[in-house]
Amino acid sequence: MQRIIDYYYTHASPWAYLGHDAFLTLADKREYAVRFRPVSLTTVFAETGGLPLAKRHPVRQAYRLVELQRWRAYRNIPLTLKPAHFPVNPELADRIALAIAVDGGPVAAYSLAVFQALWTDELDIAQENVHRAILDRLGLNADATLAQAGEKPIIERYMANQAEAIETGVFGSPSYVLNGEVFWGQDRLDLLDTALADGRAPFVAP
């Protein structure tokens, strides 16, 4: 089997942010490559029965805020519970990440910078100027990368990610897929680590 973990996530997800560095450190420790697969949760939720945050029961919304505080403290990562620009459309960020990944660029560093822009600096990641600043800091050609992110191959790849995520059984962000087995949520990283260490066959639904 290929030593690859598919990383399905969206840049609007605080959970993807909280688990981002921990996941990448884990994959590196176990000597697995990461395939970055940004997805639109709007599409995934529509096909798998998920609800956007605003449509969830108030009890679920309140518990989410408690869990964010717990994991923020546990991971020791700064995170604003209710940032100024959330909800936000993350499609531009997702497509830029795809464009960077296609060229073998620093997609991990880019995604972390976008997470921090939204969840720490309270910037609007739907705005192009936010990404220009990030790309410049990473030493990337902002004009070329933004243009590529809007081209047909990247848009088609982004759409393909949605279809492949749903077909694989992904229904939320982040999801880590190892040999077809889905590990949903950054709180499943210990289970993913065990699977990587054991090299076992994937668990499947009976």
Describe what is shown at a glance.
This protein has nine helices and four strands. It has helices at 14-29, 41-48, 58-75, 91-102, 107-119, 128-137, 142-149, 152-168, 189-198; strands at residues 4-9, 33-38, 175-178, 181-184.
Which strands sit side by side, in order, in the main sheet? 2-1-3-4
Radius of gyration: 17 Å
CATH level-four homologous superfamily name: Glutaredoxin
Strand content: 5-15%
Overall form: globular
Report the count of strand segments. 4
| Arithmetic mean of pLDDT | 96
CATH topology description: Glutaredoxin
CATH class, named Alpha Beta
The tally of helices reads 9
CATH architectural label = 3-Layer(aba) Sandwich
Tally of discrete structural domains? 1
Could you give the topology of this structure?
Elements (H helix, E strand, L loop, with lengths): L3 E6 L4 H16 L3 E6 L2 H8 L9 H18 L15 H12 L4 H13 L8 H10 L4 H8 L2 H17 L6 E4 L2 E4 L4 H10 L8
Parallel strand pairs: 1-2
Antiparallel strand pairs: 1-3, 3-4
Structure description:
- There is one protein chain.
- This protein has nine helices and four strands; from the N terminus they run βαβαααααααββα.
- It has a four-stranded mixed beta sheet with strand order 2-1-3-4.
- Helix 4 (91-102) crosses helix 7 (142-149).
- The chain has one domain: 3-Layer(aba) Sandwich (Glutaredoxin).
- 33% of the residues are buried.
- The chain has 206 residues and is α+β, with helices and mostly antiparallel strands.
- It is 54% helix and 10% strand.
